Amino acid sequence: MTEFPFLQIALPVPLPQAFDYLAPQDGDAVPVGARVLVPFGRRNLVGVVVGRSQRSEVPGGRLLRVSRLLDSGDPLLDDRLIDLLRWCWKYYKHAPGEVIASALPPALRKANGVLPDPPLQFRLTAQGREILGQPPGRARVQRKMLESMEAGPVDERALGGIGSQWRKTLAVLMDRGSVRSEPVTPDQPHISPGPQLTGEQQKAVDDIQAASGNFSCHLLDGVTGSGKTEVYMHLLEKVLTAGGQALVLVPEIGLTPQLLRRFRERLGLDPSVIHSSLSAGERLGAWTAARAGRAALVVGTRSALFTPMPQLGLIILDEEHDASFKQQDGFRYSARDIAVKRAAELDIPVVLGSATPSLESLRNAGVGRYRWHKLRRRATSVALPAWRVLDLRQQQTFHGLAAATLDTVNETLGRGEQVMVFLNRRGYAPVLMCQQCGWHGSCERCDANLTWHRSRGLLCCHHCGSQRQASVLCPECRADALTGAGEGTQQLEESLEQRFPGFPVLRFDRDRVRRKGVMDQQIEQVRLGEPCLLVGTQMLAKGHHFPGVTLVVIVNIDQALYSADFRALERMGQMILQVAGRAGRMEKAGTVILQTLHPDHPALQLLLSKGYEAYARWLLDERVSAGLPPAGYQAMLRAEAHDRSLVEQFLNRAANIFPSGEATVHGPMPAIMERVSGRSRMYLVLQCSSRSALHRQVDPWLPRLRKLAAARKVRWAIDIDPQEL
Length: 725
Ligand code: ADP
Ligand code: ZN
Ligand code: ZN
Fold this sequence. Notes:
This protein is of the alpha/beta class. Helices cover 31% and strands 23% of the residues.
């Protein structure tokens, strides 16, 4: 150890390097991956050792010493995870300390956070069994506790159900030697058989399994309902019964009770759930169980990606095209790309599943980098839906719904079936508008219209969160002529309620399901199968299957057809198919109505006549000819400030000093929504046909950017493989 006296420590500061320290005085060995407390300026910070070295560039006299090692036992993060994280901070060019922090549960980012002791379970001793054999005496609670252990050991959680005094009772029984404690046993799967796999499913399972034991990346490209989840469960079964661990990542709104229930029922164990809205204690518990190897199956969102799992044997990423896998602030990583990297480092398979794969993954599959498994038929006899494009130019509309749409809704409800009305709310939110002078509420701090929340009488900005009371008279011309314009979910809900009295209208959007339980309750109601209307946003497009829904109405898709974002058409296609895939049951094919002012748009025509694969291939060809991702590689220098000229100045200077080479600089240009919270947002795009050439130019550029005087007047960040413009 002494040949490597210098420790490199990642600290939670937004600086681009790790810091050198000397090992603590008391001579404790400080391994890589360990958590330490170090002096930094006037503070003490929690850091993680990410390397050791023979020399340091810091002059000896100025080197400080680690104050202490924070955890005993094995280092918190193992070497392979540290290697992965190091790759991340180099690739994404983000502060090491912040990258490392994303691998620690919040509780352990603080010095007083401690790794909890391994949980215990309790089992009967021979003496305990003997007592159970005797006739019950007066100590009823004690007996109840002993009985609960009759079939096998139980953990604290289960004992808690026995009564408020359970700890006391347990202590008495342990004192008497009727019960003894031991560490809880790791999760054991108890597999229940699933349906007989279809030919396509079986082939995918066999191919993926044949590749196990080595790194391989698989694109499971299967239409909704083709049984991808069933394929996952077969793969999980193999890994878990062999004593391995598995990690399943899902989009932010994909983590549904339905999915967890399916895992529980088929695999016979409780998945450990990890996502960012858990309490600090829950998060710590799940993380610790995964790290100790007790948690066999971890299911989580993006933030679960870095969970330490010593026996990890399989990674699955469901709905791999979903935008929520890319973090959009701070450490802007792609969980999909890092999942593939992690699997490669560990030499294990990774499965990316989607009904509408991203162009990135389709390209990788197309060139043979990923293996491509296609599930083209639905697993059950549910037919794929029929499409109907409704030309809004030829229709009278009522609150955004065409007359012909309303007729079809009416017929569907009349047949006792359910209807889903989907609104891509972005840009279609209802605004309050003056019919006299054309005034409409817009945010003073953002380039956004204020959304009118009629029931609360508020005008809200969905970008910066500012709110104000809606006035009765027009603030501009004082006329009593304010009305709602544009369609929002609330307005649709109200107009559908008026139009179809007697049929419940269930709204699914962020405002409605904010209250706990509302989502589940409404889903239960839909599942009862009575005719009803579902109105909602993106939330309806993921995770749930509504077998009683036979008609889906997509209110308006036109914004995507003419967007400035080159990914808009890709996202539109994904959205349409995802929404459509929610519906339909055994006997009946569903119908999907698409309302548009541009029924002849070639993209729409292609999508509907040839399907997603052909559509994606066409989009990919376009990207190739334009050199855009995934045919080329991008990085983005983002900057923002209240004063637009400072942003421009910084980006212009930055563009001027960009090293010459293959990669080219474009911009500065304004973000699609330029002003948010009063700040102007602009960016430079750096683009190249070669990923490594791009990075070779960006790497030496960043230290020079930091030295620019103009850099200190703006907020700026580098975004590698950006997804949002
Ligand atoms: P996906 O994940 O592709 O949307 P699922 O795995 O959820 O598809 O399957 C859709 C439905 O079909 C589920 O109800 C599932 O239980 C059923 N299913 C899947 N595979 C089979 C199969 N081989 N035989 C019968 N039913 C199946
Ligand atoms: Zn007015
Ligand atoms: Zn705003």
